[in-house]
User: Fold ATP-grasp domain-containing protein from Actinomyces urogenitalis DSM 15434.
Amino acid sequence: MAPQFHPVLLGADTLGYSYARQFHEVYGLTSTVLASADIRYTSTSRFTSYTVIDGLDQEETLLRALREQAGRIPDGTRPLVLSGASDWHARTLAKNRADLEAWGYAVPVIDFDLLDRLTQKDRFYALCQRLGIPYPRTWVLPFGQVAQEVTDSGLEVLGGVEQLRGADFPLIVKPSNSADWHYADIEDKHKVYTLGSYEELVRVSAQVEASGYHHSLIIQEVLSTADTSLHTLTVFADARGEVRMAVSGDVVVQDRSAKGVGNPLVILGDRRRQDLLDHARRFIRETGYSGYANFDVMDDAQGNPHFLEVNTRPGRNSYYVTLAGCPFVRPLVDHYVLGRDVATSLSDAERAADRPFLFSMVPAAVALREAGDPALRRRLEPFFAEGTWANPLLNREDRLVQRMWARINFEHMRTKF
Ligand SMILES: Nc1ncnc2c1ncn2[C@@H]1O[C@H](COP(=O)(O)OP(=O)(O)O)[C@@H](O)[C@H]1O
Ligand SMILES: [Mg+2]
Assistant:
């Protein structure tokens, strides 16, 4: 019997479309999409029922919309709410889990306290330190209370910015708490700064001091400036914190446009990084995490990897998990809707998820040019030559108008480089 559930997707980005595509491919379902804007490649899809809601980035509006939506779902069908690639959505779902569950939703996010802990970068690096997981050389500059585990971890907590007067620049500066950073009123605010001198650091620190941001700044060595130094890991853990499915990919190209900066656009999965996946496995076990986690890892100039962060939700590019051999919605449905143990519910091939893949949001010419290094280009070429690469938005099964919008998005990528 087909499972009785109904996907409700928040956001219509690449991940939103990937969900809708997969819920149809695997379960034959049409997904409800609630979005704050009309993203054509998703709204015109045969596999979505799409509503634009003003103010969906406000908690009250979001909850009201979800409550109304729950009321429209027939009895005996379980709504499953999923966020797009938005930390704010994942956070808001975790925070309101009790209400959402009371309205009937399956809510595939970790508990709020754990989410809040892991997404604060000073606390994340403190955990890495404790678990022997490599991370960049880091200083913590506090603008408020520092968590005990950070002070206890051996991370270097600065008494003031003066302590870095003689340090080697450039240095990376980024907020430990992106939720709080979102509300900080700072001119020309960045997600990540690369600062060239001590004077620049003093200036940014003074701006932050005046802004009302009351967490820490993370100050780090610059590991690399190349997109090709990045790796992405996606793992799915069962209720006991055991990783049951894991995929790694090497980032080839990242988005450089102002809005999308930092999103991987080309990911190559022809070399499984068991060393990195083993670190992720220990991290997940230690924290008692369950569900999807997505880690960012970056190599330094010597090629040594360092963990940058964990995203406590599926990444925008989660469709690469499908390409690797495990339809990425399947563990979510098994675990959160059907209450099955993914250790036994997934097939051997799905659990292994070790098929070579190339995920590309850009045309071959752009990917090959941006890859630069000839050795890396040679790894990409067979996928393009044999047509075995994939972009989740380009879907032959969807209707003509969707395929046209997806194609426009794809061709438009040429102008971003
Ligand atoms: N220490 C570092 N050295 C070089 N680049 C970095 C460093 N830290 C962050 N970056 C760059 O900034 C991006 C975002 O950093 P990350 O720590 O993943 O935070 P977030 O994604 O939450 O903004 C990374 O993908 C990487 O390109
Ligand atoms: Mg990141």
Residues 136, 172, 174, 178, 191-192, 220-224, 230, 262, 296, 298, 308-309 surround adenosine-5'-diphosphate (ligand 1) (CB under 6 Å). The chain has a mean pLDDT of 96. The domain at 5-115 is CATH 3.40.50.720 (Rossmann fold). The two ends are 48 Å apart (CA to CA).
